[in-house]
Give the backbone structure.
Amino acid sequence: MVISVVLAAFVLILPVELPDKTLFATLVLATRFPALPVFLGVGLAFGLQVVIAVTAGSLLSLLPGALVSAVVAVLFLVGAVLLWREARKGAEDTEATTQVREQTSFLRATAVSFGVLFAAEWGDLSQLATAGLAARYAEPLSVFVGAWAALLVISGLAAVLGRKLADRLPVALLHRVAAGLFLVFAVIAAAGTIRALTS
């Protein structure tokens, strides 16, 4: 393992992920479930996505940019729709939300968190950046450790902050804000697709 590559991956991935949709998705999950299963599920999803990104690092550059952008736009749009629907359901009172949390098992909360983040990470900037780093440095283990560490820091912060935000802000509002951000990312990805097709 090369420490300079680990640090390079960490320093590159951390700021890419801070304003990203996965941060907001983790925040929303942490308003519904306890922080520990959210962190575990999200961390496992990130780990698997980093393995996939590192493994496919050199292959991603062979895909047409327009195809990648189009798929990313569709994924963001689907995420926005799902979050908006969840916001409509989440308009219930706090007592009902607390009961749902209490009835959700640790394993189910972990599995839901894993599934949401695993689906959301496809084509993500951090995944593409990780693949690029793996292709550039030819140090897959070092890139994996650095990228996964950055993602774990982000998911840990989001899982803890999500619970605190849930106590201060309505869950439905958080879902709507996250849905709006997903929609913005969908529009940006669609614009990238159009640019790639017209150039």
Summary: Confidence is low (pLDDT under 50) at residues 93-100.
